[in-house]
Amino acid sequence: xxxxxxxxxxxxxxxxxxxxxxxxxxxxxxxxxxxxxxxxxxxxxxxxxxxxxxxxxxxxxxxxxxxxxxxxxxxxxxxxxxxxxxxxxxxxxxxxxxxxxxxxxxxxxxxxxxxxxxxxxxxxxxxxxxxxxxxxxxxxxxxxxxxxxxxxxxxxxxxxxxxxxxxxxxxxxxxxxxxxxxxxxxxxxxxxxxxxxxxxxxxxxxxxxxxxxxxxxxxxxxxxxxxxxxxxxxxxxxxxxxxxxxxxxxxxxxxxxxxxxxxxxxxxxxxxxxxxxxxxxxxxxxxxxxxxxxxxxxxxxxxxxxxxxxxxxxxxxxxxxxxxxxxxxxxxxxxxxxxxxxxxxxxxxxxxxxxxxxxxxxxxxxxxxxxxxxxxxxxxxxxxxxxxxx
Length: 390
Known about the structure:
The chain is of the alpha/beta class.
């Protein structure tokens, strides 16, 4: 059976070029990057080259790049590394749980937290954040692109008044990196987190931009690694793989590959919305989508349970998601969709389709064949359709 993977926002496979870049650092050049002998210096040089690549991507100094284990660690570092009792944090109700659960824990330690609700479109209104500013506001944390809807947030506008307010600004860019033009100076942020496995790199490695002068405490201590920003022996193969994945992602933005991916997404989306009783999460009242990353669409299917449709599609060879992979198996509907104003029934009836950068026309054709059949079958079994529910 043909299998089509459309859950790229959960994770992506390694590209062959990434595997080849990493291969020597598992065996031939296995040294510890902190060792001073030749083997260690070869590893150290590889990390330095990767750091330069990441600095070019972020548009920052190489000394402002910190390698870590991924987006969750980056988000946790930004919040726990900056906030103290009596401080005020502004974040949004649609953040990843790596931010929301960190905020919840900090609230228990005496940090005041304000959660900004999105508009029904999924967009955060920068004015709502500006109105929430207080004299003790120390950190604002807003994601670049939402992992469930793909909606791109107006971080540049937020960054402009953050500077004048004297607060620090963190961006969770895990879902935006490699999908939209990227420049931390233009964003106006002090901290930015990304993860390799969302852009066809390896799992368990990421990077963080930490602007010079940002008084960030390290979560991990025990060594002078990463200029004392993050202790622990460097994951050299992972770091090399992240840098290669970033190179390829940047190239796809420049050569039009991302535009072609958006066209594939749009064709998929149009076909899904042709099914009766469907709609798009992340659009205005007239149905026009708000800005989104190129690979993501989130569709609701009335009279269905999203989890049942995920299983039905999986049996037909199509991998999709009901929301964030970090909440798979959760009984509650998506906190993102609920914050956007969907009721529980429609939130539970929503699915995320997120395309790999290697997606093809044939993949879309197959999904558009399978999904309507599965929807029709499940609706025929639905008690609501059968008239047994009030």
